[in-house]
Structures are given as structure tokens and as C-alpha cells.
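so i finally got all the pieces together for this one. its two components total, 933 residues if u count the protein bits. some of the lines might not be protein, just check the labels. i wanna see the whole assembly predicted at once instead of chain by chain like last time, that was a mess tbh
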Amino acid sequence: MRYLPNTEQERQAMLASLGIQTTEELFKDIPEEVKLKETPDIPHPLSELEVKVHMQKLAQKNRSLNELVSFLGGGFYDHYIPSAVNYIISRGEFLTAYTPYQAEISQGTLQSIYEFQTMIAQLTGMDIANASMYDGATALAEAALMAAAHGRKRNNIVVSSAVNPLYLQVLSSYLRGRADLEIRYIPVRNGITGTSDFEQVIDENTAAVLLQQPNFFGCLEQGADIAEIAHKHGAKLVVCADPISLGILSAPGDYGADIVVGEGQSLGNAPYFGGPGLGFFAAREEFLRSMPGRIVGATVDTQGKRGFTLTLQTREQHIRREKATSNICSNQALNALAASIYMALMGKQGLAETAELCLQKAHYAEEKISSLPGYSRAFPAPFLKEFTVKCPVPAAKVVERLLDRGFLAGIDLGKYYPNMKDYLLVAVTEKRTKEEIDCFAEQLEGIK
Amino acid sequence: MREHTEPLLFELSRTGRTGHSLPELDVPQKPYEEMLPEDVLRKNPPELPELSEPDVVRHYTKLSQLNHAVDTGFYPLGSCTMKYNPRINEEVSQLPGFSQLHPLQPVQTVQGALELLFNMEKFLCELSGMTRFTFQPAAGAHGEFTGLSLIRAYHSHKGDTGRNKIIIPDSAHGTNPASVAMAGYKTVQVKSNDRGGIDLEHLREIADNTTAGLMLTNPNTLGIFDENITQIAEIVHNAGGLLYYDGANANAIMGISRPADMGFDIVHFNLHKTFSTPHGGGGPGSGPVGVVEKLVPFLPVPVVEKKDNSYYLDYDRPESIGKIHSFYGNFGVIIKAYAYILSMGMEGLRRASEEAVLNANYLMRALAKYFHLPYDRTCMHEFVLSGSKQKELGIRTLDMAKRLPDFGFHPPTVYFPLIVEEAMMIEPTETESKETLDAFIEAMKQIAREAEENPDMLKNAPHTTPVRRLDETRAARQPDLRWRP
């Protein structure tokens, strides 16, 4: 067995030092009745070559984004990843380290998290950020829980129905055990959260308002107006943001958000069939001691030299147990590192340029598609890289037909909203070329 | 390890430098104002650093050299199972046929991914004795939360709504009580007996019709297999509760014993512990949750099903607790664990557990000569020492832990479990050789001697790391959590 270094001789020497004959004797505390009688049905060991061949065959049964032209979004996007990202995150010193509990021998991981926290705070316009959450959905759910804990007696959360429906499902699972917290939804009007609908649901017991920007339909919400409504009732505004869009859109902190979360996959992480990506989590200073997750701080060593360490750990499960602000332990550290490297490479201008390429190409695609007979832009609200199209036939049919032509056409919204069977959600990133968009539109036109 | 620390990205930044190149715009450029209203635009680009690609690569390479990792040396961090992370797993997980898949692609384009999940589920069912698994939990704690949600769904489906307590032992991982609170339950702590297992008398007293379930690691956090496990299961089941198996310590029992046979109803495995996927400096992990037959209807949606030789995602599950992850969990991690199981086979997995337990017992016996061993009995894959002897000399466990990096070793988990004074929890894993263990024993022996003869050596440790002992009080009292110009 290639991963087990002890030789038979060494094994015998170790057994002898313990005064026993076989390893079987080490398992004597396991009662006979719970010992396995039959060998589990798992194949015999494969050589490295055989494993590689098996895995290649499985991979070949998938049609990847390298082969299909993708207009799929809905939280995960096909953005370009610079080569240096994968090279750096593959280094064993980052890849095979644990959570940096021992600061003196984990400065690499700790400093990279401190830099990540800084860049996320800059991007979102918040004061502080943590080391990452599992994904965008759990980050949003934990933001709701944090706002509720912060709001003490406040007992309801007001949520825009234009938030990603998968995130709403996770939110509802996270809050199911909390009989003391009610979720209230704001309807969607013409693709955006109806600002005039707030008065019916928001009250002095609302802990937070949850908004996605741009929302699931790709539309830009009236963030500043909603912030004002939330704050008027003493509620916190939680914004779930797309990080690439923040290259050109106002930082949520600038229009009044108190907590900003989102899915960070777009920042240098391959889509991997939905994970691992990362949730990012940023907030105003007042949430410093109620944040979930790992936080790194700068300090000095005994010689006065700058160093980094996990800090404010009295919030966390290993110290506070049932009184912790969250149960999170493992996070998505390596994905956060990839996001940091991506942001460092893109820099101040690169993220804005990427967002602008998406903006231009998405608008080109939208105009092209809307000019086709039977197709139209669904909502008038401004958008960035993703938009909703009304199709002349059910979107499911569009998706199926376009797949035959080598395209992932987008998301059939009928899967999530029974009354939107003819609506297709289309995402366009900087990777899409004019030729691909033209060809896509041509194929759409051919569908009867 | 490098001696010199590295400036921050922001300190290295120079106005006008760039580390990216993007294709030129190939569609007709439209004026901004025709697309976006003025008031949604950022006034200035985000303040990210400006660096060239060589700057960035060198920065992170230097940072990496400030880390201890499994690849650089022994990492006996108890309960974390820091075993070797095979490189073949990394390579195959990066095949574009896996890494370049969008989660919402039509199922006919992801048959290989679904087949992998389907096969992996079978493997985990075989190893645990459970009926079905969900892969959505992204980590162990996420699995615990999922398991507790399943417990709630099960009881409320039966109309049994008075159960609001979860029993956990006083030796439990911190995530257990934190998950209990997050799921809306109350924690009841059960005492440990003098052999390190659950005190059955106490369990009988507290298990009643308000008990929703019990969470347990077995082997537990002392590295001890609770020999009363069948009685524990009986007491909890008789009270109407369910048993949750925290798989953090499953590396001791692969192919030897199964949680379902011990009486557990729900289990999570940590693929990033037992199944060799790298920890990445704190994640990503993967904490798949398995259940016995009666809990299958409540699993999160979707589950992978097979029909007429093709695979699909089944969302039509009315009793489901819903979703707990945006998509299907950390698929990229699951690929690596799947490749690991193929490499090891059943013989290899069993052998890994045997060797992990042998290595731990060898180390425990050797170190018991120098340190107090509070539970002096055969251990499983890990064991807990106490620094109580050295404490009498004025040396804390922390001082001894901080000395180990000077010998090239990562310290053990310290001050946990809470029921052992000055605890040192040591887990060598099966991928370490006798020579490595002997070198670690020598280092610990020297540390024990220094505690008697040269205490300052320990109090001022570490001596050879890029930074010396850090002022954690200052970090918490004057939080500096981001760089500011």
C-alpha cells in the first residue's frame, strides 16, 4: 500500500514493544456484537494507473464548459481563471495545512486570510470580513441569524422574493428550528423587489431585510431606497452581492447595507458542479463580536515583530460551545485563497474591466435576442451580466434544443416559478465572444 | 521554513502595475449611460492592490514557505486526522470533465458526475451500514446541523413535538453543542465515567420523553472506544431518541465496526479527515450525512437516483428537510475521497485503520514514561496526555506545544478535551513511519527534560519560527482585522 510507510519488520517491532502479537488485540474494547462479520462490498485496491483511467472515463461521461458554450449563471459563473491561481493553491504548504491554530508556523495561511478580509471589506464597503463561509446560501442564512441575534427581541426577517430561490430554500432550512423567528416575503414587481410592498410586512420587530444585488433575475434593485425603508424600522439591511459586479457597481456599504454576503466562486474558482466555492461575509464594525467563523487579526510577537493570528475566538464553538455565534469550524479556506490571488492579479483596474466586458457583452446579447421574433426582454430594470428573456416556446424546450447545438442556453425559470415557464435566465461573462453570441442568437431564432 | 516574513500585498502595490490581461471588447461598445443609471455606479474602482503576475506569484510562494503542512512535516493534531493527501486525487479532481461543470447543467451532460456520487454513496453506505447519504454538508459541523434537522423532522412527522433536548457527553467537540443550539435544541450534558466512556447511570437519569437524540463520537475524543455502546443506544432508543454519530474519529474503525451496527441512526463522515482530502488551511471539507431506512424520506433534496442505466436528481421528496447547500455540496472534495477509496480498496482502508491504531498505541506507550496518561488503557487512533506533571514545575502545556516546531513538528491539539487538565491530544495517523514516531518521541522526551532542567527554553519557545510567540490578548483587545492605508 503506497501511502503506508511501515514495513512488516517495523510493524513487528512496534507490536513487540506493546507486548502483543497482532493488531487485532488493539481492538479488544470493541464488543464482538458490533464488530463487522462480513467484509463491506468495496472493490479491491486499484493501482494509480487504474484509478486514473477509471476517473478519466467518468470525467468523459460529462460534457464540460470547455466543450459547451455556457450562458448559465444563477450564482455560479463561467469567468476566466488566470493560470497562476491554480499553480499557487496547489502548493502543498497551502493545500495540506490545517486551520491555523498554531500561529507561529501558520503565518502564510494567516496573512493570506488577513489580506482576503481586507480585499472583501474594500469590495463590499464594509468594515470587517471573516475568513469565509461554505457558500453564498449559507452565508446569507448566517447573516440572517446574526442580524436576529443582534436585534435581540426582534422576531422577523423580511426577505425579497427576488433572492436566488435555492438560497431561499437554504434559508428556510436554517430557520426551521427557530420557532421564534418568522420569515416574511416581499413580492417581485416587474423583476424587482416591490418597494411599495414593504409597509405591509416590515415592522418594529423586523431584525433584517434580505436583498440580492443584482437579483436572481439579473435586475438591479433600488438598494438605497430599500436601505432607507429598513433603517426607518430599525432593521439591518443584508445584501447578497455578486463580487464581479462590484468592480463597477457601488459598494453595498455605500448605499446603506449593514451586512454584505455572497458567493465568491466567480473570483478564481472553477465551478466544480456547484462546490467548493466560498461564501464571503462582511459587516459593519458593530457586528465585530457577533460574526460567525474564523477571523484573523494582526498583532506583534515577543520581539515586537508584526504577525497574524486567529482572533476574537470567544465567539467560536470550540470556546463558547452552545453559546457560540455559529457552529462553523471548517470553512472554504483554499477557495478564499484562490479568490485572494484572483483579486490580487486583477487588481484595482482588472475587476472593473472584467465587469465592464460582462456588461457590454450581456447588453449586446440581450439586444440581439430581444430583436428575434417572439423573444423579448422580460423586465425593464437595468442589469449587468445576467438578464431574463421571454421566449416564444417553453424555456425547457429552448434549453433542450440548444444543447443539441452545443450551448447551455441558461436557466429555465419554470423550474422555480410555475408561472414563468416561458422565461429563460441568460448569463454572459467576459469569456463569451461575439461569434458565440451571434451563433447563440441564430440558434434561438430557429426554434419553433 | 523561511525565517523572514513577507510584506502585505497592499504594501507591495505600485500604482499602474497590473497582473491580468483580458480580451479586447469584440462587440460594439455602448455608452454606460444607456445601460446603467449613474447612481448605481461605483465612484472609484475598488481599492485592490496593483501588482504584476511575478509579484503575486513570488508573494504567495514566500507566504507558503511560512506554513507547516503535512507535506513539510509530522502533524499529529488530535481529531483532525492529518494523513497524507495523495497527489493522484488532486490530479483527477482537476480533470475538466469534473472541474468545469456548472451545477445547473442538464442531467444528460453530467452523467459521470452523478455516477460518481451514486457510487460514492454506495461506498459510504457499505462502510457505515447506513441506507442512504446526502453530500450537501460542506463540513462536519454542517453535517451535524443537517443531522439535527433530520432528527427534528423525524419526531415532528410522528407528531412527537415535546422533544427539545439533545444529550452530548462532556468530552464532545465544541461543534456538537454549537450545532444543537443552532438547530433550536437545548444541550444536556452527560458525564463521563472513570474509564472515559459515558456514565450509564447518569444517561439513564437524563434520557426521557424530552430527549430528541444523543450525539457521540466513537471512538470518543479521548481516543477510547466506548465499550458500552450497545447499552447507550438501547437507553436512548427506549427513551424515544435517535443516535447521531459524529464521524470525526472514524479513521479508527474502517472495515472493523460500523456505526449502524453500534445502533446509530445518523452518521456524518469527514471526507477531509478519514478519506484523505487535503484541509487547505481550514477547508474546503465535506461532511456527508448517512441515515437508516426510517430517516431516508427526510434527507435534503435532491438525491441521486438511477433508472434505466442513467442517473437523475430526484427533487420529488415531500418529507425532505429541504436544501442545506446551494447545490450538491463540495463535489470537488468528494471526487478526491472517491479516488482515495478506489486506491485503498477495502483491504487498504482496514489496513489504514489498523496502522493508525498501532501507531497511536506505540506513541502513547512511549510517551507515557514522561507525561501523565489520565486514561491508561488501549487507545484507538489517538490518545490524550496531560501536562499535569509539568504544570507542577510551572510549565504549561502551551509552553511544551510551542517548543515542538523547533524540532520540525506541529504541536498536538491542546487544552481539549476539556475534561483533561492541560490536555495534549495526539493523533499520528497511519501515513507516518516508525522513524518519524521515534523522532517525535525523542523531541517530547527532551521537552520533558527541559521542563525540569531548563524551563526558560520552553517558556520562550518557539525559537526558530518566522515569528515568535504572538500577543493574542492584544489581537483580541485592539482588533486589527484589515489593512488600512
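Chain B has 16 helices and twelve strands.
Residues 16-66 of chain B form one domain.
anyway lmk what u think
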